[in-house]
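Thread: quick sanity check before group meeting

JM: Hey all, I'm pulling together slides for Thursday and realized we never actually wrote out the predicted structure for the chain we discussed last week. Dropping the sequence here so it's in one place. If anyone has concerns about the input, flag it before I start.
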Amino acid sequence: MKKKAELASDVPSDKFMYQDKEETQRELDAAHQILNDLPSPLIKEEVNYRKCNTPSHARYRGDDEPDVSIKSKKTKVSIKG
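JM (edit): ok, ran it. Output follows.
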């Protein structure tokens, strides 16, 4: 686009097909504005400071605990009213 703006003539040779220098400059300015409006990407290394819970999710589930089988006893609960 920069090259297009540089090479554009002051007066278009064909009013239906070509842009003049002023129009190519507006197009280039709009492209720059669009690039500036885009959010910057989040990079893992740059946002690590945001972590507050550092243990992994597996740790909270107990996946790193030794495998202990627990036999549950079925109990019958009765409520007298």
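AS: nice. Residues 21-37 form the longest helix (17 residues). The helical segments are 2-7, 21-37, 44-47, 57-61.
JM: adding both to the slides.
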